[in-house]
Amino acid sequence: VIVFSFVCALWVMIASPIANAGPYLMNDVGGTLTIPDEWEMTRWSDWDFKAKGANGTIMYKLWLSPYQSPINEEASKAFAADYIEKVANEGGGEASVASSEIKTIGGRTTAISEINFKAKGGKGSAGLFIGAAFAGDGQVIHSRVISSKRNAGKARKALESTLASFKLKKGPAATGNGDV
Questions:
Q1: Residue 19 burial by CB count (10 A; 0-12/13-18/19+): exposed, middle or buried?
Q2: Number of other CB atoms surrounding residue 53 within 10 Å
Q3: Which residues pair with 140 in a beta bridge?
Q4: φ, ψ at 178 (rounded to 5°)
């Protein structure tokens, strides 16, 4: 029994990192996500993904918007306003947009928005929500990290690594000028 228990424990130690290793194929998203090695996946489906890192102090999420829009300054500001609502849904209060910009990450035009907030309840610790959006095939792919202000640098670096390494199978659909 002791040998069997030891073998089982050894197998779990070996298999656990492999189970949390990427990359993660996401069919509805249309691509493959790779997360930092030290992160742990907590939810994985074809249309969304969640993970946590830095001993649970950084929370990551990827999800879809069922429409495609150009990624530009106007869209970036609209995403930032939407992210403020998401901060409230995640337990953040007193949220405000710190910055909203367009960057090229992983060869894609990406809207990046940083939202400062205070956690509801407790001491009201300062937090940071960094949201990113880029165009997929007929949809917008969003990613975000939520962390304390203290972990802002790690959170920013980790989010940018997921964006840079994301393998999009099929790029954005061709769009017209909107005239009917």
A1: exposed
A2: 21
A3: 65, 135
A4: 90, -5
> What's the pLDDT tens digit per position in 25-47?
999 999 999 999 999 999 999 99
Instruction: Residue 117: name the closest of 98, 89, 95 by CA.
Output: 95
For 41, the 3-state DSSP assignment is strand
Are 141 and 71 contacting, i.e. CB atoms less than 8 angstroms apart? no
User: In this structure, are residues 106 and 164 in contact, taking their beta carbons and an 8 Å threshold?
Assistant: yes
Q: Please provide the size of the chain in residues.
A: 180
pLDDT digits (tens, 9 = 90+) for 135-180: 999 899 999 999 999 999 999 999 999 999 999 997 777 766 655 4
Note the maximum CA span of the chain.
Answer: 73
Residue 99's DSSP bridge partners are 114
Cβ(134)–Cβ(171) under 8 Å?
no
Tell which residue, 126, 162, 138, 180, has the closest CA to residue 24: 162
The pTM of this model reads 0.83
Q: Residue 114: which H helix or E strand, with range?
A: strand 108-119
Cα–Cα–Cα angle for 28, 32, 35, rounded to 5 degrees: 125
